[in-house]
Structures are given as structure tokens and as C-alpha cells.
Design goal:
Blueprint (H helix, E strand, L loop, with lengths): L10 H69 L3 H36 L6 H7 L2 H17 L4 H34 L12 H38 L5 H6 L6 H51 L1 H7 L6 H16 L1 H22 L3 H28 L1 H8 L6 H13 L1 H16 L4 H21 L9 H25 L5 H29 L11 H23 L5 H5 L4 H10 L5
């Protein structure tokens, strides 16, 4: 059994730490992406997104795949009181991650040119080469983050995430602005713009965008260097909480070879699942752009007619049309991934909790953890997704000043909003299956879902009248398959009898009320609040949107209380939660 003197966080307490960090990271990310989008435009954002889409598969293997194996194995040994094994696992993990980081960095550099050629966008190569070294630093960070996750101490991970985001924000924005200014100043002075002779402002912008995007990406790489430095320093100064007494009471550790085999044995299916997921995303990105090129070649006139106002406003030349559409789609993806970024923290916290409960065969704790994860995800994802869907256009209008691609990005954002609860649940569901030792199940469901997604992309994106919106269809089908398959196997393996009414129906009812409040109040307020310059951020329309969001939050909060949707067990796992639950229980507001 784990020592009682070792300070460890509960499932929701650990998740809360990561949620706070994620909130800060998302705010910082918005402060980065909004000015970056305004600086380098949809075309530059398209290059930025294309580089990210080849980087993300390797990045996610490092940050969300391999650390799962460390977290699970550390948690299992903590539960059994094998603290010497825990220390040895960390040493082995650092060696493995060093090798993974070097290989990953080289692979990304080698793939840069063939990837760029395959999407007919060689201008993305500078961005890929600049971001490649961050793979190594991310891998080394993963060793520390996975280790502390297994110890159920999410604080080091949280702080390192914020440091990484700040580095990206400050340096990425400054470097991108400098590059854009440099390119346009050369044009005004009649000089070559990054080695190209240009005659119009549109041509000058087109020549500058690839290097401005690479400059923005440089901030990402520098941020990972700072974050890794913090984790190394933190570990040397504060250690890991395992005392000398705990080590003395611990049995003799297993051989390095045995622990290495265990670690790799857990890691292989986890990594395979992550590879499938990210390979799918890579193929998704490639196929969308490839089929967009086909759709444009088939009937460019129809596509230009569909987005006539947006394309004329942005002064988009034919060679940039595909990248423009993809850049608009990428803007909507920022919001598609917003809520899942928060709910993912529940999955990260669930791995060590479920691993310990499963190791000790504690059925009560297994049921408690599974229901808490699902219920909290639905309470967060359902209202946020519906609200994001009904207010897609006004939200984008607030964040992106003079955004020409609003008519494209807003509908995409709305469609993904309604599917947010599926997207947000997919990763924590995968983590719960990994926590109980069934790492193979996510791999299988992902493989099936990936085939459907890629096929749907090839069919629908290549049809001119659907173009970029065909990608939405494939993505929704993808997550339906993952969640349906994962839930079936989770229930079968754990034999947990879920209270579907409390964890699904009640949150859905409250979320619909929340969405209705947002939609109706925004409509009414928009008719009343008509002041300010429409081109300014401070105007009646934007104020109406913010007030509508506030009203929706209040309506949702009240509906949760009166429907008694919040569970006492969930509140008790939060810092100070017992006091809150007693007050709510006194007035009959808690389930």
C-alpha cells in the first residue's frame, strides 16, 4: 500500500490543477494566435497550421502517448509500496525519451520536403525545420511529466505548461511581427522580398507569409526549452516526495531489464494508439488540402461564388485559395479543441487513480472514478459546446478583427460545437481504458474510426459544393465510432453499472437550457444594444455577445442546482469541497 505520509492529489484535485494551468495556457494561446492571425493572415496561418499538422503526430506521441506508460507503471508500484522500482523507472524513462527525442527530431526534418511537396506547398518547409528541435525537448519534458503524474502530483506539469506557453507568446509574436515588417518594408523600398522580385502588395505578402509563419513557430521551440529547464531544476531542488524511510521499507527493485520490458510492454499499445490518432490527423490534414486542390481545379468558379465576399475582401489570388480555405478551417479548429483541452486533464488524472484501484481490485473506487470522470466531462463539454455553436459567429467577430473568412469559419465552429461532448470525452475514455490495462482497445477503435474518416474526406472534400465542410462530416463520424466503441468495452471490462440519467440526461437538459438562453438573449440584446463603430471591438454587438454568455452561465448554474445534477462525491474530491457540499446539501441542491 502507498504510504499515507506521501502527499498525493485526488482525481479531481489533480485535474483541477491541470484545468487551471490549461486555462492559463489557453488564454496565453489566444493572446498568441489572435495577433498572429491578424499579423500573418489566413494564408500565413495556413502555413503555420500545415507545419503544426506534421509536428503534432510526433509531439502527441511524446506528450500524450509514452508518458501514459510511465504514469501507469509508477502508480502501480506506488500502490504496492515498491518505491525503489519507482525511482528506477524514472531513470529508464529518461534514457528512452532521449533516444525518442533525437529520432523524432530527425524524422521531422527528413519528412519536411516530401510532405510539403505532397500538399503542393513548399513554402511550409521553413516552419517545419524551425519546429523540429522542439520534438527533442518535448520528449525530455514527457519523462518528467509522466513521472509526476504517476506520483499524482500535477503541479510540475502545470507550471511547465504555462512557462512553455509564455515563451511561445512573447517570442513568437515578436519574431513574426519583425518578419512581416521586414518583408513589407523591403517591398516599399523596391527591394526583393525574401529573394523574390514582387510588383504588387499581394505578391509581397505572399512572399513574406512563409517566413513570418516560421518566425511564429520559432516561439514554440524556444518555449519548450524554457519549460524543460524548469522541470530539471525543480526536480533537483524539490525531488519527488519519496523519503529515505520509504525507500528503506521498499523491497529490492526488479532488474533494469525487467522494468524496461514492463515499461515498453505498456508503452507499445499506448504509442500505437497515439500513432494511429496522429497519423490519422496527419493524413486528415494532407487529404483535406489535397482534395481541396482537386475541388478548386474541378470548379473554382463555384467555390469563389460561395465565398465571393470573403475572397474579394481578402484579395486572395488563385494560388493562395486552397491555403486560405484551409486557414479559415484551422481557425475554427482552435475552438473545436478548446473544451477537450480542459477535459483531457480528467483523463490524465484518471490514469494513476484507476491504475491503483485496478491493481488493488478496489471495485468501489473504480466505479467512483469512472462515474466522476464521465459526469464532470458532460457537465463541462455539453453546455460549452452548445453555447459555442449558437454563438459561433459573434464570438469569432469579437476575437478576430476584420476577419474576412468569418463566413467560412463560423459554420465550421458551430458544427463542431454540437459535437464537442463527443470530442471532449474521447481522450479521457481512452485514458480510462489504459488505466485498467486495456491499452489495446483504443488502438482498435481508433483504427476503425480512422478508415471511415479518411474515406469520407476523400469523398466529400473533393466535391466542390462541400469543399472544406466535407472535413467536418468525417471528423464527427470519427468521434462517434471512438466513443461508442470505447464505452462498450469500458463497461464490459469494469462491469460498472452507470447511472445514465445522472451522468448524461441531466447535464444534457441543463445544457439545452444554457444554449437556449445564450441564443435568445443574444438575439434580443442585439436588437437593443446598437452603438459604437462596427469595426471597433467596443460596440453594441460585442457587448450583447458577452452579456449573452454571462446570462447563459447563470441559467446553467441555476439549472444545475434545481435539477440536483451536481454529485456530492465529486465536490468532496475538490479542495474545500466538503464545506461546499454541506451547504448545497442543506438547501437540497445536491444529488
Amino acid at each position: 500500500m502507498a504510504e499515507s505520509g506521501m502527499k498525493r492529489q485526488s482525481l479531481l484535485n489533480g485535474a483541477l490543477v491541470l484545468v487551471i494551468a490549461t486555462a492559463l495556457v489557453k488564454v496565453i494561446g489566444a493572446l498568441f494566435k489572435i495577433p498572429i492571425t491578424n499579423l500573418i493572415g489566413p494564408v500565413g496561418r495556413g502555413y503555420f497550421g500545415s507545419a503544426y499538422n506534421i509536428f503534432i503526430p510526433v509531439y502527441n506521441i511524446a506528450m500524450a502517448g509514452l508518458p501514459v506508460a510511465i504514469s501507469k507503471l509508477v502508480a502501480q508500484n506506488i500502490a504496492l509500496g515498491r518505491y525503489r522500482d519507482v525511482r528506477l523507472i524514472f531513470k529508464i524513462a529518461k534514457r528512452l525519451f532521449f533516444l525518442t527525442g533525437v529520432v523524432g527530431m530527425l524524422i521531422l526534418m527528413i519528412l519536411a520536403y516530401p510532405y510539403a511537396k505532397s500538399i503542393n506547398t513548399t513554402q511550409v518547409i521553413p516552419s517545419i525545420l524551425v519546429i523540429a528541435p522542439s520534438i527533442f525537448f518535448c520528449c525530455m519534458m514527457s519523462a518528467y511529466r509522466g513521472y509526476y503524474s504517476g506520483l499524482r502530483n500535477m503541479n510540475p506539469t502545470a507550471v511547465s505548461q504555462v512557462i512553455e506557453a509564455l515563451g511561445k507568446l512573447i517570442l513568437g509574436t515578436l519574431l513574426a511581427k519583425f518578419t512581416m515588417d521586414h518583408g513589407m518594408n523591403n517591398f516599399k523600398e523596391g527591394k526583393k522580398v525574401f529573394g523574390k522580385v514582387v510588383t504588387t502588395e499581394a505578391e509581397a505578402l505572399s512572399a513574406t507569409y512563409p517566413y513570418a509563419a516560421a518566425a511564429a513557430v520559432a516561439g514554440v521551440t524556444i518555449g519548450t526549452v524554457f519549460a524543460l529547464g524548469y522541470l530539471i531544476l525543480r526536480h533537483r531542488l524539490k525531488k519527488d516526495g519519496i523519503s529515505k524511510a520509504m525507500l528503506r521499507s521498499s523491497p529490492k527493485p526488479l532488474q533494469v531489464k525487467n522494468l524496461t520490458y514492463q515499461l515498453i510492454g505498456i508503452a507499445i499499445p499506448v504509442v500505437a494508439s497515439t500513432i494511429i490518432m496522429n497519423l490519422t490527423n496527419f493524413i486528415d490534414s494532407w487529404s483535406i488540402q489535397f482534395r481541396l486542390s482537386h475541388a478548386i481545379a474541378s470548379n473554382e468558379g463555384l467555390i469563389r461564388a460561395m465565398y465571393e465576399t470573403a475572397l474579394n475582401t481578402a484579395n486572395i489570388v488563385t494560388s493562395d485559395l486552397k491555403t486560405y480555405l484551409y486557414g479559415a478551417y484551422e481557425t475554427a479548429l482552435d475552438f473545436k479543441n478548446l473544451i477537450p483541452a480542459f477535459t483531457m486533464t480528467l483523463g490524465v488524472s484518471a490514469i494513476p487513480v484507476l491504475s491503483e484501484a485496478w491493481t488493488l481490485k478496489n471495485k468501489r473506487e473504480i466505479k467512483k472514478a469512472v462515474e466522476s470522470v464521465i459526469r464532470v466531462i458532460m457537465l463541462i463539454a455539453m453546455p460549452a459546446g452548445i453555447g459555442m455553436a449558437v454563438l459561433a459567429k459573434p464570438i469569432l467577430s469579437i476575437l478576430y478583427k476584420d476577419m474576412s473568412s468569418l463566413s467560412i469559419a463560423a459554420p465550421v465552429m458551430a458544427y463542431y460545437g454540437y459535437a464537442t461532448f463527443l470530442i471532449a470525452f474521447s481522450q479521457p475514455l481512452t485514458n480510462m481504458l489504459q488505466g485498467i490495462g486495456r491499452m489495446d482497445i483504443p488502438m482498435k477503435t481508433l483504427a476503425v474510426a480512422a478508415v471511415f474518416k479518411i474515406l469520407i474526406n476523400f469523398i466529400f472534400v473533393g466535391i466542390p459544393k462541400y469543399n472544406i465542410f466535407g472535413a467536418v462530416i468525417g471528423t464527427v463520424v470519427f468521434y462517434v465510432i471512438i466513443v461508442a466503441g470505447g464505452m462498450f468495452f469500458l463497461i464490459r471490462e469494469t462491469k460498472v453499472k452507470l447511472n445514465y440519467f445522472n451522468i448524461f440526461i441531466k447535464p444534457l437538459f441543463c445544457s439545452v437550457l444554457c444554449g437556449a438562453a445564450a441564443w435568445s438573449s443574444h438575439g434580443l440584446l442585439s436588437m437593443v444594444l446598437k452603438f459604437g463603430d462596427p469595426s471597433s471591438r467596443l460596440n453594441g454587438a460585442n457587448v450583447a455577445t458577452l452579456l449573452a454568455i454571462g446570462i447563459a452561465v447563470v441559467v446553467y448554474g441555476l439549472s444545475l442546482l434545481f435539477s440536483r445534477t451536481i454529485a456530492k462525491t465529486d465536490l468532496n474530491m475538490l479542495p474545500g469541497g466538503e464545506k461546499i457540499s454541506k451547504i448545497l446539501e442543506k438547501y437540497g441542491f445536491i444529488g
